[in-house]
Design goal:
Helix content is about 45%, strand content about 15%. With about 525 residues, it is an alpha/beta fold. α6 packs parallel to α8. The longest helix has 22 residues. The protein binds adenosine-5'-diphosphate and magnesium ion. InterPro entries: DbpA/CsdA_RNA-bd_dom, DEAD/DEAH_box_helicase_dom, DEAD/DEAH_RhlB, DEAD_box_RNA_helicases, DeaD_dimer, Helicase_ATP-bd, Helicase_C-like, Nucleotide-bd_a/b_plait_sf.
């Protein structure tokens, strides 16, 4: 990609060794660009998508330049959630493995006494959530007098979670000669203000273009479904793909609970994660998932933000996300660190326009895919069974069963016996009782309207959208593609809005031309 090696970045031996142990081959773009600058002591604002290795970017710089003494902390890292604080902590421990370095995670939900004791024993790097950190500062158990490095990780998330005032209070309680590194996927105005007030004037901006790492490595597909078939579609997809580890997203906590229950009752190894669950519970679930003891994790956006699990092969949007950024966050859970991943979205006709907007905003291509038929699923399962049988035969570890087989041989045809055994295996492997071979595809999502107004009338797509929006009182998300021609135009609109648009806009005038509207032939 950029052919820069970790050895080129100016890092010391111990770190290079640790990086090697972690199996990183080459620095990601944000690492290659920010580490050398951070090593020179500059403040940095780093903007890059999730999954691009920002933790190691600041971790390397801090660990390289710090002289640890296990007394008062020299570095403070603020992260939005407990899960993220824990993950950052783990990564720093791995990076600092060859240094005499003590890293301490501090977050709410953990006994505060234990944190008091750990802080008293002396630490070099504290990683924590703003609320609990502030708590310790106020109680006097955390002293920031020696802080040389401050990291605001996932700053936009901290802002979204309402931590901005806590952060300001924390920053004010430390000395101003320090290096501040701020990382964020997006750069809203409040973050810029924060930087202006609390970072050095010569701070360096490093922005890595979207799509450079994660999204481009992720194959994105959508399935057009009827609302009533949502669950069956999910079962078909996962029965066919057999993901190693998949995260399935729902819009609401209730949605998570219901889906988990439905999946469990069909025998899938799955658990849910959302904000109503205790911290302990969520951590246990995440641990199980990380260790491969769960095939599926069903989560809300909030619960899954930033969680980093290696080897997630699939992200499935059971419900579409609320906004485009959530989509990027979600699918960033797969294809981590240059691995390939698959992202699926289930969309009803009604949701189709939202999907198109996501596609446009994220500059990605989301291909349509057909829901697997029952035949296709069975074929996959048959192949599995044949492979399992072959493997077992080749391992020759079935001597105990030979007498039983011989006994059956006297009574039955062995081909029948084998087929019966395979059916038993098969029944275990499929969850859903697929009564029809293929699901019906829903009627088209959009209606294509013909309007008797065109370029010669001096209209642009924008004036047209505004006209339709204002005249028919529909949202811009109900208006899709526009083909603007010289004398007329076609506008794709949401199925549930077209009648309203025809009623209200037909016969109206735009740029002094009276508009006639008809339903055009479907194109898609
Ligand atoms: P971000 O904070 O940008 O969302 P993380 O720092 O959590 O991303 O990194 C995502 C994953 O990529 C982690 O599992 C991390 O260990 C791994 N990773 C980071 N840098 C590299 C690299 N240079 N090569 C391979 N894997 C990496
Ligand atoms: Mg991060």
């Amino acid at each position: 990609m950029n052919n820069i090696k970790f050895e080129d970045l100016g890092l010391k031996e111990g770190l290079l060794k640790a990086i090697k142990d972690m199996g990183f081959e080459e620095p990601s773009q944000i690492q290659a660009e920010s580490i050398p600058i951070a090593l020179q002591g500059f403040d940095i604002i780093g903007q890059a998508q999730t999954g691009t290795g920002k933790t190691a970017a600041f971790g390397c710089a801090i660990i390289n330049n710090m002289t640890p003494n296990r007394k008062l902390p020299k570095a403070l890292i603020l992260a939005p959630t407990r899960e993220l604080a824990i993950q950052v902590n783990e990564e720093l421990v791995r990076l600092g493995k060859h240094e005499r370095l003590s890293v301490l995670p501090i977050y709410g939900g953990q006994p505060i006494d234990r944190q008091f004791r750990a802080l008293k024993q002396g630490v070099d790097i504290v990683v924590g959530t703003p609320g609990r950190i502030l708590d310790h500062i106020r109680r006097g158990s955390l002293k920031l007098d020696e802080i040389e490095f401050l990291v605001l990780d996932e700053a936009d998330e901290m802002l979204n979670m309402g931590f901005i005032e806590d952060i300001e209070e924390i920053v004010k309680s430390m000395k101003s000669e320090r290096q501040t590194l701020l990382f964020s996927a997006t750069m809203p105005k409040e973050i810029k203000n924060l930087a202006q007030r609390y970072m050095k004037k010569d701070l360096q901006h490093i922005s890595i273009k979207k799509n450079s790492l994660t999204v481009s490595k992720i194959s994105q597909y959508y399935f057009e479904i009827k609302h009533k078939d949502r669950f069956e579609t999910l079962c078909r997809i996962i029965d066919f793909d057999e993901p190693n580890a998949a995260i399935i997203f729902c819009k609401t906590k209730k949605g998570v609970d219901e889906l988990v229950e439905a999946m469990q009752s069909r025998g899938y190894v799955v658990e849910g994660m959302h904000g109503d669950m205790t911290q302990n519970h969520r951590m246990m679930t995440l641990k199980k998932f990380k260790e491969g003891n769960l095939d599926f994790l069903v989560a809300t956006d909030v619960a899954a933000r930033g969680i980093d699990v290696e080897g997630v092969t699939h992200v499935i949007n059971y419900d579409l996300p609320q906004d485009n950024e959530s989509y990027v966050h979600r699918i960033g859970r797969t294809g981590r660190a240059n691995r390939e991943g698959i992202a699926y979205s289930l969309v009803t006709p009604r949701e189709y326009i939202s999907l198109k907007q996501i596609q446009k905003a994220t500059k990605s291509t989301i291909h349509r895919k057909a829901v697997p038929t029952a035949d296709e699923i069975f074929e996959t399962k048959f192949k599995n069974i044949i492979n399992d049988v072959k493997e077992t035969i080749e391992e020759e570890d079935f001597a105990n069963f030979v007498p039983i087989a011989t006994e059956l041989d006297e009574e039955y045809n062995l081909v029948d016996v084998a087929a019966a055994l395979m059916k038993m295996l098969f029944d275990k492997q499929t969850s859903f009782d697929y009564s029809q071979n293929s699901l019906e595809t829903p009627a088209s999502a959009e209606v294509r309207l013909f309007l008797s107004i065109g370029r010669r009338d001096g209209i642009t797509p924008k004036t047209l959208v505004n006209f339709i929006k204002n005249t028919a009182r529909v949202g811009s998300n109900q208006i899709g593609d526009i083909d603007l021609l010289e004398n007329f135009c076609f506008v794709n609109v949401a199925e549930d809005a077209y009648a309203r648009i025809m009623d209200n806009c037909s016969g109206q005038k735009l740029n002094r031309r009276k508009i006639n509207i008809e339903v055009a032939k479907q194109k898609r």
